[in-house]
Design brief:
Layout (H helix, E strand, L loop, with lengths): L1 H20 L10 E11 L2 E6 L2 E6 L12 E9 L2 E9 L2
Parallel strand pairs: 3-5
Antiparallel strand pairs: 1-2, 1-4, 2-3, 4-5
Length: 92
């Protein structure tokens, strides 16, 4: 009789382990590298031309004004549709 009363507790514990174990974030923040040219500025955001695409970029670490109209390689992470740049390297 004592073991039967503990059965719901074991069930809840077992269910919690499986449920909470599967609650990991499926979104991975991965660093990307892009090569292109920052063509214009709008407020705190810039527009970077990468091949035939236009990407919104910004940075809290790098003054992107220094790289307007220059060919650059950037490294950073996307949040939504904006690329947050951590580092910039000029290219030829």
């Amino acid at each position: 009789m004592k073991n039967i009363k503990r059965l719901p507790i074991y069930f809840v514990l077992l269910f919690s382990v499986f449920f909470l174990g599967g609650c990991q974030s499926t979104t991975k923040n991965s660093i990307v590298e892009k090569t292109g040219q920052i063509i214009t500025k709008s407020g705190d955001e810039y527009i970077m031309k990468i091949n035939d695409d236009m990407v919104n970029v910004t940075s809290q670490k790098v003054n992107l004004d220094n790289y307007l109209k220059k060919n650059i390689k950037v490294s950073g992470m996307f949040s939504g549709t904006t690329l947050y740049i951590d580092s910039v390297q000029e290219t030829n």
